[in-house]
Specification:
The complex is a heterodimer of chains A (about 300) and B (about 375). Chain A has about 300 residues and is an all-alpha fold. Chain A is built from 13 helices and no strands. Chain B has a 6-stranded mixed beta sheet, sandwiched between helices. Classes of the chains: A mainly alpha (about 300), B alpha+beta (about 375). The complex binds adenosine-5'-triphosphate (ATP) and magnesium ion. Magnesium ion binds near residues 43, 83 and 159 of chain B.
């Protein structure tokens, strides 16, 4: 399973090469620092007490580890008038994101498959129109969508938000899968037809297992988009059905009392953790899939 | 019940580019038909149309007496080996082979025994649990064969199934295919670029050119009585020598006069009676004389016979192939190849006495290309 490792490839040697490698790594380290320093600051601030924050500098590390800001952010911070912390809203986001990602990814895969492997007259036009959806600014659709949700009786609910995200995710997911399937040999689909499989048989048993890389990319993309969405969340949900992004905004922007930077930081990290987790888990799978030759004919 | 295949005036265009230009073929049940033709002449397209993977432009296709124009591939009871193998990359070799049986809900134990049978035959049992990406080209090709063979459908379509195998394996597989055909008796349509494969396997060969079938006949007829210059030049390796000339009747008997070049007297190839009898073309008619390399040999190296013609030419190139040696020489502007015994070969530049067996000569009309 390891034959495809990069390390097996013959590489140039010599002092010049070593120097270039060193330079490369130095630049990479610089970029790492650029991205990591804000995160470090956030984490260290979230572990400090309020007094320590007021006295110390931004970059100093916490003297004692104080997790109280995290517990508070999770279960006691005030979001608007309710003071149950972020927990219920994180749950809202999960309830919204998981089905929306699953639905939009699945339908995108099905679209891409139909548009490339079961060509019909006008397929390219339909794809062009779907693609157009990727360029629509979401502000434009807020009002019509609100009307639609109201009409469907889904206004202000998590299922309503699932519908919105599934629909607007389709443009991108279709694009990803269509471009992936374009590269998959038609012969494989034809072979499966001769082997007696039908539209869905080929989709589930032949095409989908080949598209793990596309699925991973699409899931990462959709998860990030939907989890991080603020606009639809704030426009189409109210109070208790808010996703975590809206709740986070409400936590940070409460005007009453002292600014609790440590709680804000902890809350922000909590809101961002799931996307990070998806990157790490799916990313690892992605790399593993590549090295196992899963996408090679 | 074995199904025959009938193509009726089949046409196909890809966006204005006509690829199949009206093909009629009647393939008997149980026949082994080999399609040959230059690259890009439409063989794979025709096969795809029989399989139902490509819609018909116009015309009809019958399989087993039924019109199948609108029947999808899965319901045509065919199996196909694709030119590009088209193996399922995420499935193991075993799963690749059994996929067709799985979709048709064939019992597991039958699947298992079928895999056993064909993996031994195709010598792929050692890598049944590997993925196609971990196989060599020739191994993949055999898996593709296995996938087609296990199902035992009414019609097999093979698109260059042995093209990637080494010479030894290719001959073994060729024999296996022939045995299999004799055992199963199913109809086979087989595309190949290998002349020997075509000659040895086919019950009939269809020679295609540019979207047409030029000739559809048994291998001997194709080889001995090609209908036109194209078929004559396509079948046979090295190809038939084509010597342009004109018809003359110096003393009442027709001969082919070919300029020898270099100021020498023109050569006069006497035509055998069989051929002469049916010629009614006027004197001076432009013709092409077709001489297979094996009908030109060193003078005196074969038992004397009728209708022999000898000529003396310098050798220009000598190409040993093992069992025979090819000698390239020139008549006028035309290069010809003679197939001689290795011990008869001579050095390039030296004069050589060639003997031509005119009884085997073919004559074509230079303008129409048709056999005379
Ligand atoms: N999907 C397609 N769209 C457009 N043109 C095509 C398509 N498929 C085949 N062609 C064209 O049709 C012609 C015949 O192709 P085909 O694959 O049938 O040739 P072939 O006889 O199988 O050649 P080879 O021996 O190289 O496999 C070629 O000129 C090819 O470019
Ligand atoms: Mg082909």
């Amino acid at each position: 399973m390891k034959e495809r490792r990069i390390s097996g490839i013959v590489q140039r040697r010599g002092p010049r090469h070593v120097l270039m490698r060193g330079l490369l790594f130095a630049i990479l380290l610089l970029f790492c620092a650029y991205y990591l320093v804000p995160l470090v600051v956030m984490i260290s601030t979230s572990l400090k007490s309020l007094a320590e924050i007021r006295e110390g500098s931004l970059l100093s590390l916490p003297q004692t580890l104080d997790f109280s800001a995290w517990t508070k952010a999770w279960s006691a911070a005030c979001v608007g008038v309710r003071c149950d912390g972020l927990a219920p809203y994180v749950w809202n986001s999960v309830l919204m994101t998981v089905p929306a990602v699953a639905i939009s990814t699945f339908l995108g895969a099905l679209n891409g498959y139909a548009l490339t492997k079961w060509r019909f007259p006008g397929a390219d036009w339909i794809f062009a129109l779907v693609l157009f959806g990727a360029f629509i600014p979401f502000q434009v659709v807020l009002l019509p969508m609100a009307r639609t949700l109201g009409f469907l009786g889904l206004a202000g609910t998590v299922p309503g938000l699932i519908l919105v995200h599934s629909v607007y995710g389709l443009a991108f997911t279709t694009l990803f899968f269509r471009n992936f399937f374009i590269g998959v040999s038609n012969g494989i689909v034809q072979a499966a037809m001769v082997d007696g499989a039908g539209f869905f048989g080929i989709f589930f048993r032949v095409v989908l297992p080949m598209s793990i890389p596309a699925i991973v990319v699409t899931v990462i993309w959709q998860f990030t988009q939907i989890w991080n969405d603020f606009l639809f969340g704030v426009a189409f949900t109210i109070g208790d059905s808010n996703p975590v992004t809206v709740a986070l905004n409400n936590v940070v922007n409460t005007s009453t009392g002292v600014k609790q930077y440590n709680v804000d930081m902890a809350a922000a990290i909590i809101a961002g953790l799931p996307t990070l987790a998806v990157y790490v888990i799916a990313g690892a799978y992605f790399v593993r899939g590549l090295s196992a030759g899963a996408i090679k004919g | 019940m074995v199904s025959g295949i009938k193509l009726e005036n089949v046409h196909k265009s890809f966006g204005g580019n006509e690829v199949i230009k009206g093909i009629d073929l009647e393939i008997e049940p149980g026949e082994f038909v080999v399609l040959v033709g230059p690259s890009g002449c439409g063989k794979s397209t025709l096969l795809n149309m029989i399989a139902g993977l490509e819609t018909l432009g116009s015309g009809h296709i019958h399989i087993g007496g039924n019109i199948v124009d609108d029947i999808p591939p899965r319901d045509r009871d065919i199996a196909m080996v694709f030119q590009s193998y088209a193996l399922y990359p995420t499935k193991t070799v075993r799963e690749n082979i059994t996929f067709g049986m799985q979709t048709r809900r064939i019992p597991k134990d039958l699947q298992k025994s079928a895999v056993e049978e064909f993996s031994t035959l195709l010598q792929i049992h050692a890598y049944l649990d590997r993925k196609p990406g971990q196989l060599s080209g020739g191994q993949r090709q055999r898996v593709a064969m296995g996938r087609a063979l296990v199902r035992k459908p009414e019609v097999f379509l093979f698109d260059e199934p042995l093209s990637n195998l080494d010479a030894k394996l290719r001959i073994e597989m060729r024999t296996e295919i022939k045995k299999l055909h004799q055992r199963l008796g199913k109809t086979i349509v087989y595309v190949t670029h290998d002349q020997i494969e075509a000659m040895t396997l086919a019950s009939r060969i269809a020679v295609m050119d540019n979207g047409h079938v030029r000739q559809f006949a048994d291998p001997t007829t194709i080889y001995e009585h090609p209908v036109d210059l194209f078929v004559a030049g396509f079948m046979g390796s090295p190809p038939m020598n084509m010597l342009p000339g004109c018809l003359r009747r110096p003393d009442g008997r027709p001969v082919v006069e070919a300029p020898a070049g270099g100021g020498a007297d023109a050569l006069h190839f006497p035509l055998p009676d069989r051929l002469a009898a049916r010629l009614d073309q006027p004197d001076g008619h432009q013709v092409v004389l077709g001489l297979r390399p094996e009908t030109i040999f060193r003078a005196g190296s074969e038992l004397p016979g009728e209708d022999r013609f000898t000529l003396n030419r310098p050798v220009s190139v000598v190409e040993p192939t093992g069992p025979d040696t090819m000698i390239v020489f020139e008549i006028g502007e035309t290069e010809l190849i003679a197939r001689v015994r290795p011990e008869d070969a001579a050095e390039p530049g030296t004069p050589f006495e060639f003997e031509v067996d005119m009884a085997k000569a073919k004559l074509f009309d230079a303008k129409t290309g048709l056999h005379l």
